[in-house]
Structures are given as C-alpha cells and as structure tokens.
Amino acid sequence: MTGHKRLTQNDIAKLAGVSQATVSLVLNGAPTALARIPAETRERVQGVIRTTGYVADPIARRMAKGLNRILGVFTYEPAFPSAQADFFTPFLLGIEEEAQQQNYDLLLLTSAGVGNNRKIFSENNRLRIADGCLVLGREFDRKELARLVAEDYPFVAIGRRDDAGGPVPYVGGDYAAGTRQLVEEAVLLGHSKLAYVGPEGTAESIADRWRGFCSALGEGPKLALHVDAVNRPAGEIVDGIVSSGATAAFFIELADAVRVEAAARERGLVVPQDFSMVVLGSHIRAGRSPVRFTSYKIPREEMGRQATAMLVNRIETGSVGSQILLTCETVAGETLGPCPLYPAKKRQSTKRIQ
Amino acid sequence: MTGHKRLTQNDIAKLAGVSQATVSLVLNGAPTALARIPAETRERVQGVIRTTGYVADPIARRMAKGLNRILGVFTYEPAFPSAQADFFTPFLLGIEEEAQQQNYDLLLLTSAGVGNNRKIFSENNRLRIADGCLVLGREFDRKELARLVAEDYPFVAIGRRDDAGGPVPYVGGDYAAGTRQLVEEAVLLGHSKLAYVGPEGTAESIADRWRGFCSALGEGPKLALHVDAVNRPAGEIVDGIVSSGATAAFFIELADAVRVEAAARERGLVVPQDFSMVVLGSHIRAGRSPVRFTSYKIPREEMGRQATAMLVNRIETGSVGSQILLTCETVAGETLGPCPLYPAKKRQSTKRIQ
DNA sequence: CTGTCGTGCTAATACGTATTAGCGTTAATA
DNA sequence: TATTAACGCTAATACGTATTAGCACGACAG
Q1: pLDDT tens across B277-322, in order?
Q2: A226: distance to nearest CA of chain B, Å?
Q3: Out of B2, B63, B147, closest to residue A318 by CB
Q4: A280 CB-contact burial (10 Å; exposed 0-12 / middle 13-18 / buried 19+)
Q5: Which of B89, B126, B147 sits opposite A89 (nearest CB)?
Q6: Residue B222 at interface with chain A, using a CB cutoff of 8 Å
Q7: How far is Cα B349 from Cα B79, in angstroms, rounded to an integer?
Q8: Could you give the domains of chain B?
C-alpha cells in the first residue's frame, strides 16, 4: 500500500477534454497519425501533461508494446562483494556507458537464486521483465545457456562460450591469441622449456588459455611442467619449476604468481634473471603487488560496451547476434626476460655486477 | 521483433485442460482458494508448468498486482566510471546484498538524463517501473527531492538530506560527530590552532563536516586557517598552514591531503612531527597512498544495506521512512600526533636524531 | 443530389496476470 | 423429495498503455 495515486492517461484525457487514445497518440503517435491531430489539440494535451507532470507507466507500456528499454544483467556471482568487484566493475562500466548512450536502463538480476547457487530460470524468473539480457560470470550453467539459445531469448554473453545447442552470441577476449603471443615472445627470448601453472577447469576462459599455450608450443618449445596451483604451496611450485628445468612459467592466476615470486625471492632467486614469469590476463588488483608482471590486457570495458551494443541490436532488429573476440594486447611488465641459459654468459656477469 | 513466443498461462491452461484462472490460482492463490482445488488438478497443472518451464511474466504480474519486487537505484553520476566506482561500489555492495536477501532486483536508472545532467524526472521517467527507489549521489537536486517527497513516492536517500518540503527518509553517516570526535582528539593532543582545508559546498555532506568541526571548536581551540583547496597549489597550502601557526590540518578531500603531505615532505617537514593531518572520511583509494592518514570510516556498505531495508519496509508496509545516522568510527592512522609546541622539547630532539 | 475524400477524433481491443463473484454438479441433510 | 452445502472450477474484469479500425462531420467534385 504505497498510497501515492498514479496519474493515468485517462486523467489527462479528462482534463484536456479528449479521449485516452488521443493522449497516447499525442505522446507517441506515428507521424501519420499525429498529422491528423490539429496543433491546437496537441498543445492543449501537452499543456496538461506539463502542468501535471504526467509520465507514462513503463509497465503498462511494456504490456502494450512488448518492449521497455531495459537490459537485464545476470551475474552468476553477486556483482559487488569486494572479491568480485574488481572483476565485474570494469564490465559494468562499459555496459552502463553503452546502455546510457542507447537510452536503456539496467536491471541487475540479483535475487534470482539462493546463495551461491544462482539460476537464470528460477521460480520467479524476472528475466522477462527486460527486453534482453547480458550474462556474465566465470563459469556458466550449460543447460541454462542451452535453454536461452533454444528459446531464442535475446541475450549476449560476456566471454567466449562454446555452442550450447546452437551458437552462443558473445563478446569475449581472445585469450588464446593473447596467450600464444606471450609464449612466442618467450620463445624468441630463448626459452624452450616452459611451465604452466593453473587449473584444468572446464570453463572456456581457462580452456582457451591452455589451447593458446599448446598451439604456440608447436614443434619448438616444450612443456616441462604443468601444475595446478590450487592448494599447492608456493615453495613447492618454485622447486618444481627449478627442478624441471623450465625457464619461463605461465600463470593463470595472478595470486599464484605473486605467491610464487615471493617464494622464489625467499630462495634467493631473481625474476626474470633466474626464470621468467608471465601472467595470462590482466588483473585489477595487480596494482597491489609491487611486481609488474608481464601479461596481457583484457579489454573488459570494451567487452561490456560491445556486448551491450550487440544486445541492443538483437533486440531492436531481431538479428541473431554474433561471436566477437577482442584482442588482448600484451603488457610488457618486467618479469619476462631472456632465457638464462641460452645467451647466458653476458647476462650472468651483468647480474653479478648489479 | 524478438521472435520468441512466450508461454502464457493460457497455454498452460489448455495443456492441462483447465482455465487460465485455475493456473493462476495454482501458482499463487490464497490458501483458502487453493483448498478448493483438489490435489490431483494442482499436480496436473504443476506438471505442465514443470515440463514446459513456464514462468509468469513479471510485467503482466505487476500490471495486475501493482508491485514487481524491483528497487530502482538512481545515481546522479554514472556509477561505474573508475573515478566514481570507488565511491559507489561499497554502497552498491550493501544494496545488492540486502536486496538479494529481501528478494528484490535492482534497476539501475542510468538513462535518465543527458550526459552529466541527470534528472530523476526526465521525459521518460522510468522511476515508476520500480516499486521504490534509492537515491544516491554527492549532491542532490533539491527540487527533485521535494517532488519525490510531495508525491509520496517511496524512496530513501543515501546520505543525510535536509528537509525538502518535508522530512527526507535517509540513511547517512554521522559526519558531524565523526569530525567532532577527531577534532577533540586533536585538542587532547594539545592542538589549539587548527586549519580546515576544503570547499564550502552546499551539499549536506560538506556542511555536516563543517558543522561538526565548528561544534568542537567551542571555547578552546581556534580556527587559524580556512582554505578551499580547489585550484590551490599544495605548496601554497603548506605555507599557509605553517605561517598561520596551525598545528593540525583537517581535510575534506583525501586527494588534497596527499598532495599537501607530499609538498610538506618536499619542504623538509614531517607529519605528524611538524604538524598533524586529519582526513574527514574514509576513501577507498587510500590504499594507493603510502601514508595512512588519520580519519574516520564511513560505513558505506552498512548505509546501503540499511537504506535498502528501509525502502523495502516503506514499500511493503506503507511506512513513511525515517532518518538514520550511522556512526563513523575513527581510524587511528599515523598522521595525528601531539602538538609540536605544547609538549614540544622531547619531540624535537627525537626528530633530530632520526 | 449523391458520392468521395479528408479531418478530427474515439471505441474497441490486445497485452498476461490476479482476483472476485458465481455457476453447475454432486453429496449430505431435513 | 426438496433444500442446502460443499466442491471444483470458470467467466469476467481490472490494471494502463498502444494501436487499429472506423465513426461523424463537412467540403468538394461530379
């Protein structure tokens, strides 16, 4: 019982001495229809609207038109808790920017689900309140995705997604190419025995990095070590790298890289003089670590912007959406250096001098 | 032309061999009404619902019921651009958390306005799509606020607000008390000549700090210097503090404090040995500065949470809302020390030794 | 004078759900 | 057997807007 009585077109109509239909036409009639309403009447109606401050109820509007200029944003994890915030915020920045430009509002689908177990298709599916939906999160529920595809619901995923009973429209980062690029740079610097530190996850983002890594391996360099850093003490990983003979280590998680670098330093090892480190992706919190890791930049804002644009396009033109991968540019950093064994002599001497 | 044909209660009804009304009743009929539908029928209907995956259209629902479990979030500035992100994110975290708990979704009103000139009451006022609205931003449009109050629209402001043709429901931080507390601590440490560095703005948040500052002045300590730091070179401010004889400077903006501290160090001055510095409020980016300033903590998340709870309460019970100020606890920091003149001798010697 | 066309508007309906009043049938009661 | 009560459901309507079809009226042509 909110108590505030809404003004309706009927009220306006009575005040202006016309019918509800006329009010509606004055507000958003097609030019052809508007032409049939004389300026005098139009002005009278608009005068009443102005003085009363009437605005159409978007809900009723949506009922009638089917669209309401609202974009849903579904995240599989809460968007703002600080742990996630740094992950989601850049996306949201891009999304908000583009949405504002296109004059859409954003509906954050937060209540859909219980605790960590969020569902798009929950009991009270609010998805339909929006004209379409952006879906983001590290890992998607394949079934839900498949259902969205099957229903032909207008949505766009942020981040590459495998087909789910049909192609999934997305805007993602080209992690495979980014990763490959970094591996190639390492190879150019003489590295031939590499380490890969990261989980085996089924998520596309993880798989893409691994794929990019492998594709760069080709005939030349070899994978000397492959560890899943989860629950592995950093020291152990350092030992693994050293004993495997790997001279460059690639990390999925910045956090692991930070731990490993610290452990290496504790053992008197210097990066990149003793071995190189590369982080596969940009991480906001990077600023917190004193070390500027070599990595690539994930264009999160741009992903948000383009995904939003694609979604709006889907909604307004009925297009089916497409698959877009944005390139992730290399961030030089200071943890990727020449292979300490290959053109080694000079290096080692300078190292001693320093 | 999105093309995907929605399932409606009518479809379900036909499939289950009942009427649309029955479907609706099965879904959300009052217990008394439900009692009149035999279990067999109910199960048949729910079976169809399950196999088809039908979910009610929230828009139509809202049409019929008047409420849609959506909370609007209106920000006077875009919420995510990095400059603002650190300001808004904590609020949004609290809001999202509470909204999720109460099973409401959030509608970010981003499109309401052009560029920086956002308006709640724009041409296509989307506000009404939500059951109620949270309003946040550093500075509010008084007229719009007054209109919200006058219309009895269910909203809650985040941050204290002056009356606007009636009391404004809000959850704010008690900046006045927080500021007063810090001034008193400074006085206990012997400071008697204070500097106040910050704008004179009309915004409540600014005014409250100034009020708290003044209230602590009372008979004892005196305001030796009052500068608006905007467009003032930091060095000039340092000079002002020194020449005014002030021994403790209070800053509205962290950014100013950072600049001033740097300028002071350049001149060979040490904080807090030579003069103390206090920042009136917590600032996320504080982590970026190497100096841990003495200040107080603004409980932004809690403000978001409580404001959301109050709003939900307003919506669901029709209550009128209230005014809540949350205490801002002091953050010790390392920039507030004893007055260098009062118990001075010892201090100065230690300073020379270092 | 009849027919056609243009003008200025309105009636009617659709959108999908919630909800109330009430209908037809059967079972229980007097 | 007649009356009532309970049961199991449905018809009808409201919500506020957009939109189409078309009415009534006057002007103008033939």
Answers
A1: 999 987 655 455 678 899 999 999 999 999 999 999 998 888 889 9
A2: 35
A3: B2
A4: buried
A5: B89
A6: no
A7: 50
A8: 9-56 (1.10.260), 70-173+301-327 (3.40.50.2300), 175-298+332-353 (3.40.50.2300)
